[in-house]
């Protein structure tokens, strides 16, 4: 009898010690053309464990999922509908100085495409070429200087 009771107590402690998932808002861009597409996506995402709400804006082709879910799980489930799906690629265009905007004609009004800044270092030979391009020692240098 003592072994069974200790197993039950141990199992309840194990459940309590498990980490709780955090509340997330996942935004997706899903290609939807009709009411049937919208209904299919809504029903599929609503069945995911942990989803609290699913909001769909068909004009922007935007799906917002709120709940205790992971973004990759929601993305995979949305892709299982056979629709073209990607994480929401746009950010509001509010501050010019944060990052250079990348214009996209398909972006909703007031939004630009999200781009992660990438710094590309020039090759060693290219640096030397650029340094000697306007040099006085170079006979083929720019004549405007």
Q: Could you give the topology of this structure?
A:
Layout: H1 2-17, E1 24-30, H2 35-46, E2 51-57, E3 62-67, H3 71-79, E4 85-87, E5 90-92, E6 111-113, H4 124-132
Antiparallel strand pairs: 1-3, 1-4, 2-3, 5-6
Short description:
The protein is an alpha+beta fold and 145 residues long. It has a domain at 24-87: 2-Layer Sandwich (Alpha-Beta Plaits), CATH 3.30.70.100. The protein has helices at 2-17, 35-46, 71-79, 124-132; strands at 24-30, 51-57, 62-67, 85-87, 90-92, 111-113.
Decide which structural class fits the backbone. alpha+beta
Element order: H for helix, E for strand: HEHEEHEEEH
| CATH top-level class of the domain at 24-87 | Alpha Beta
End-to-end distance: 95 Å
* Total of helices: 4
CATH topology of the domain at 24-87: Alpha-Beta Plaits
Lateral arrangement of strands in the main beta sheet: 2-3-1-4
Domain HMA: 23-86
Keywords: Metal-binding
Protein name: HMA domain-containing protein
Pfam families: HMA
Features:
alpha+beta; single chain; two-stranded antiparallel ribbon; 4-stranded antiparallel β-sheet; 6 strands; Alpha-Beta Plaits; elongated; 145 residues; 4 helices; 32% helix
What does this protein look like?
This is HMA domain-containing protein. InterPro entries: HMA_dom, HMA_dom_sf. Keywords: Metal-binding. With 145 residues, the protein is α+β, with helices and mostly antiparallel strands. It starts with a helix and ends in a 13-residue tail after the last helix. A 4-stranded antiparallel β-sheet has the order 2-3-1-4, with helices on one face. A hairpin with a 4-residue loop joins strand 2 and strand 3. It is built from 4 helices and 6 strands; from the N terminus they run H-E-H-E-E-H-E-E-E-H. It has a domain of 64 residues: 2-Layer Sandwich (Alpha-Beta Plaits).
């Amino acid at each position: 009898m003592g072994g069974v009771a200790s197993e039950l107590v141990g199992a309840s402690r194990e459940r309590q010690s498990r980490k709780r998932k955090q509340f997330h808002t996942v935004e997706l861009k899903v290609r939807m053309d009709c009411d049937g597409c919208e209904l299919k996506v809504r029903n599929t995402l609503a069945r995911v464990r942990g989803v609290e709400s699913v909001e769909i804006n068909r004009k922007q082709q935007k799906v917002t999922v709120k709940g205790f879910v992971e973004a990759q799980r929601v993305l995979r489930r949305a892709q299982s509908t056979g629709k073209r799906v990607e994480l929401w690629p746009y950010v509001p265009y509010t501050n010019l100085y944060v990052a250079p905007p990348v214009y996209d004609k398909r972006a909703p009004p007031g939004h630009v495409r999200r781009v992660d800044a990438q710094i590309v270092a020039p090759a060693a030979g290219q640096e030397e070429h650029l340094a000697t391009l306007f040099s006085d020692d170079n006979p083929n240098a720019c004549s405007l200087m």
